[in-house]
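FORM 7B - TANDEM STRUCTURE REPORT

SECTION 1: FIRST PROTEIN
SEQUENCE AND TOKENS:
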Amino acid sequence: MATGIVYPLTLGRSHYQQPLLAQSWQEAQLTQVISGHRSDVNSLAISPDSKTLISSSKDKTIKFWNLRDGRLQRTIKGFTRTPSALVISADGKRLAAATERQINIWNLETGAPPRTLKGHTGIVRSIAISPDGKILVSGSPDKTVMVWDVLTGQSLGTITEHSDWVTAVAISPDGKHLVSASGGSDRSIKIWDLSSLELRQTISKQPRFMILPLVKIATS
């Protein structure tokens, strides 16, 4: 049983459709323990092929692990701020991580230096990448949701309709909708058209304490 702080986790998926879950939680068994960070681990992501686990830590590193044997494959260093809010694209080609008020995006195929997205005035708390890998969205306590072109790093728009800090963002599996959640006095969930950024629905006044982050949502 866990005795410390439990942070949000991500489960691997086959082509982002079927989650890789144990048939029964009662049957679930610990298969291995992966260690190597020198401080708290704050975010996890699993590659779409379920072969690689990616972790970020307060030790200012991002590490890549072989999920089969737990071996360390690669470490990204050199951060001046703690990386967090990891997300990997559906094709496994790009990794994004929030670092304070900015977002770094790595091309995992080329190994080129990361592209840096700047625009938030508050710490970025949540990020998501569209299923086609072309759009990234980010949410922050600065009360905004920003939408970015992953390939160019250009801003595609900013949502300012939340009246308090944005706690989480998610994109629907069909890539048509963006969902944002806020805390504080706002406490609402808003659903947007991702292409036009038009508001489609508001679910208002959620319980005082919200579950974070949002999970990927399904659409009919």
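SECTION 2: SECOND PROTEIN
SEQUENCE AND TOKENS:
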Amino acid sequence: MDQRQRVSKACDACKVRKVKCNGQQPCTQCSHLALRCIYAPKAIAPRKQGRRGGVISKYKETTSGSWSSSDASPVSPANHDRYDCAFFVDLIPDFMTAVYPVQPVMTEQEIHDSIQAMDNDQEAKSFALAFGGCTLNLTRTGVRRTPEVNQTIAFLASESIKARGPVMPNFQSSVRQALTSLFLHNCFMTMRDKDTAFFYMRDAISLIQLLRIDQMNSEDPPLSPPERSRRQRLYWEGFIHERFLAILDYRSVVLPPLQDLPEDDPTIPLSIQEGFNQIIKLFQLLDTEFLQNWLGNQSNLTPAWIERKDRELVGDSEGVPEGYALLTPMQRADLIVTKHWLRTLVWRLAMSNTLLSSQSSKECLSLLFPVRLSNQLRSEVPRISREDIEIHGSGIVQKLFEITDTIADVVIAIPAATVEETTRRVDDFDFLLRFVFTFSNLDHTRRRILEEKHEKIQQMLDRVKSPAPSIASPAGSDNPW
């Protein structure tokens, strides 16, 4: 049932308080007072009316342990009335540590100001709620990722959407509104609600385009240098999210790259600026030609193009970029996984266009490239903590899945020449598989895909190690007859 559908009777809370109920789910009265809005199947017996505050308190007590299973709206935590300014202010340190380095747009002071204004400003309220959901989504990982946390994220995202309201005439976009949509996109991606996540990603891009960031050179009056840089970083963040979804879901893109990286901004740490620029450089490789090849819009892919794309990636990895030493382990983890993921994509393009060969001297054109990548990852993974990867959300786990799945296909399809080589390949794959399985946000479908392929690989290894026995000679000494 639609969560806003009207019903013909009053909810339990309105009956107890003897006030008018508008029959919605939740109704206006319950939404205003943070009460559970439950419609009982049977009429509730008349109750003696007491003081208004006492009735509300008693109703909260009697419903604190129940929730209507027919409610179609996101599950609201029992104590959701605790989501006041203090709750969101307490999340700011987590955000600045774990989220801001990869989404360096809103400053700590700007976030604090929005939280303080959320009771009187709907845009600020929507931002604060989305900020809370995104921060919990990216920082509550591992054993801290409880069902209650998931419910809270869903609730905050839903309330953020409600607070936004419709777009009215004379609407004006803002950096805060665009970032709100990106936060919502992040939440719905982890909830595996792909269509809603895509909607809010495109919503963010529309808001970014309305800011005309790509035309700031002609802006009058001019923006301050930090504001110009901040808006450029917002633009590139939208670019990165859209390019990732274009690969993941085979979608077209609408946001072209800016001509340059964000201008230097002395108001943010150099390590954050450098790490963000490195990620931009990687996603710039997903240019128009790359996406056309990936989406199958043209078929003139050549070995020279594959070599050039792979060389661009390998060149960055072998020659350590300037400023790389400044990066945090979290930033390095993002760069390492993203780089290997992109190399895997290039190899898959070559494979789908039958450009690979077992005899090729070029690694990117070799059928065994994923096997070598598996061995390389085995040497790099011990230097990366699970926390440094998981904090980037579901997107980076999806990249690891794509890499691992590709490696599995090659191990299964291309037998090794010796038992020793087969064992080494399987050991490298098993090591990577165990690492991927430690991530709680790897969904059940992808986990099952890898489990099934792992089972095939183990069966293959068993056959190699235990070949069919030859027929023994009747005169042999081992003949029991």
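SECTION 3: OBSERVATIONS ON SECOND PROTEIN
The CA atoms of residues 370 and 410 lie 7 Å apart.
Residues 225-249 form the longest helix (25 residues).

SECTION 4: SIGNATURE
Preparer initials: ____
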